Amino acid sequence: MDAAELIAGIGNGDRRALARAITHVEADTETGRAVLAGLYPRTGQARTVGVTGSPGVGKSTLVRRRARAQ
């Protein structure tokens, strides 16, 4: 899949497209950079939040529940 197909798939809720896009972004490929550039204008007022803490204190549970509440 090329960047345009991945972006379209992500927009349609295709988990496989998202997984492939993440792989490209993590590997810093040309496709990954194109996906990020294509998705950036769609982020609107998105913010980045970091969650830190000791192992086993519930970070993943907190993030998962917060995401579902959106």
What does this structure look like?
The protein is an all-alpha fold. The protein has one domain (3-69). It is 60% helix and 0% strand. The chain has helices at residues 3-11, 15-26, 30-39, 59-69. Helix 1 (3-11) crosses helix 2. The longest helix has 12 residues, at 15-26. The chain is elongated and about 40 Å long.
Keywords:
70 residues, mainly alpha, 4 helices
SSE topology sketch:
Elements: H1 3-11, H2 15-26, H3 30-39, H4 59-69
Helix pairs in contact: 1-2, 1-3, 2-3
Quick summary of this structure?
The protein has 70 residues and is mostly helical. The protein has helices spanning 3-11, 15-26, 30-39, 59-69. It is elongated and about 40 Å long.
